[in-house]
Design goal:
There is one protein chain. By secondary structure, the protein is of the alpha/beta class. The chain is about 35% helix and about 20% strand. The strands form 2 sheets. An 8-stranded mixed beta sheet has the order 3-2-1-4-5-6-9-10, sandwiched between helices. Helix 4 links the parallel strand 4 and strand 5. Helix 1 crosses helix 2 and helix 4 packs parallel to helix 5. The longest helix is centred in the C-terminal third of the chain and has 25 residues. The radius of gyration is 18 Å and the shape is globular. The protein starts with a strand and ends with a strand.
Length: about 270
Amino acid sequence: MALKPWLLTTPASRGIGLQIARRLLNTTDLPVVATARRDLDKARSAILEGLDTVDPKRLSVFELDVTDEGSISTAVSRIKDQFPSRTHYLHLAYLLPGILPNPEKAPAQISASACLDTFRVNTIGPLLLLKHFHDFLPRKSTQLPSLPSSLPQQAVTAIMSARVGSISDNALGGWYSYRASKAAVNQIVKTFDIYLKQRSGDKAIGVGLHPGTVKTGLSKEFWGKVREEKLFSGEFAAERLGVVVKGVGVDGRGRCWDWEGKEVPA
């Protein structure tokens, strides 16, 4: 018997994660799990705002802080109660933690504490999410159901990366800690996808995503330096990343893809 799919966006209280959660609710009929560090009722209201035709029971919001492994473990335990592995599996996971506290222009601006914060959220955060959520993904023996046309046919774990994480594409320098944290994410994506290939075959893949420059708090300082046509709304980014995740397929596994569906070089 085919297992029942569910979808995950973490975090989802604002920015791209909020818009992805809204899009998943609006374009599928599947249960959606979202997470927030605090103010769960506020996050839930923001996700559901204006989605009058969506059954609110499809949305579950859990408290989760990627810098606190105990909170991840607690959230996963509660999710297991709601979606037991004998009847359900995780079909699409967006792992989106990210901060940019100190975009250094020169080595003298490097701060040990800011570097640690950056890696704790951008790199170790996704690693811990993979540690605790990977058991929800299908195995080679899992029978997958028929799925909505808006979703990929194989399970996908999509981790937020960035073009500045590309080593070969780095022509400008700067942003030492952020670049390094995202380069590490690309390595994590590749390594996790190799694990999935061994565990799940073609039924689950891992990819990295570059959304472009999006009007979120993370990039606000740089909005004025971006051409208007290249500064995206959260809604546009969510729509484009959904298209990319659906279209990348097994042949694109283990790599990073931008909002246009073009590969970001390593």
